Known about the structure:
Layout: E1 2-6, H1 15-18, E2 27-29, E3 32-33, H2 34-44, E4 49-54, H3 58-68, E5 74-79, H4 88-94, E6 103-107, E7 110-112, H5 114-121, E8 128-133, E9 144-147, E10 153-157, E11 167-175, H6 178-191, H7 202-208, E12 214-218, E13 224-226, H8 230-241
Parallel strand pairs: 1-4, 1-6, 4-5, 8-12
Antiparallel strand pairs: 2-3, 6-11, 7-13, 8-11, 9-10, 9-11
Amino acid sequence: MKAILLSAGQGRRLARATEGAPKCLVPIHGDCSLLELQLRTLARCGIERVVVMVGYGAHRVESEIHRLAIPGLEVATEYNPFSATTDNLVTAWLARAAMDEEFVLLNGDTLFEDQIMNRLLAYDRRPVAIATARKPSYDEDDMKVVLDPDGRLGAIGKQLPGLTPDGEAIGMTVFRGEGIDGFRRVLDEIVRTPEGGQAWYTAALDCLAARLRIEAVPIGDCWWAEVDTLDDLRRVREVFDQREEPASTEDPPVRTAASFA
């Protein structure tokens, strides 16, 4: 299984915390960056190869990857020269050459505990499976999902007029079999439209859901967090700072949901 990590963004809403560095290099726990936590979690979950899509500050991200050199994890980068003027559908489209086998696609600002990835990868009979979470209410920035009674994705987007959300996508999707070619094909279709440059890759999932089954995989009480704003960053740092022992570069501080209480 391969992972494709979308980490090309600057993270303008985190500008005061990044000090000009790419969003994925913002420190979370001591010197441990968002990217390092993601890579070490992927390695623990059995992922052996990762393609990190870079853009803003690409050389700094590549230097960090070289410094980490995580045992058992082969990490390569691909560059998006348009990251400053486009959204992440273009970044995903530029990654399509890496979509040549089963892969999991992840947002570069999502942290999660191991059980979520393990649960998602266990859905090995579906062409596409997307991790979803539920909460009492949803705001305009949530990537909302609508499901049919059988758990199949019906619609996904931040704006779903006239529809009642059944959850939100946490930024983690696995593709197998016909789902790989289907996703690549839809990405290619959308990127050619006038709106394609400013679209999220979830627009491709929304379109693909009408063509084949996309399984929504509920994460239950498992912990995850998106690091998109300064408030997000503060809350995530508080979670990791609850650890009594210091952060270790060999064992990054990802804990079970029960220990977050």
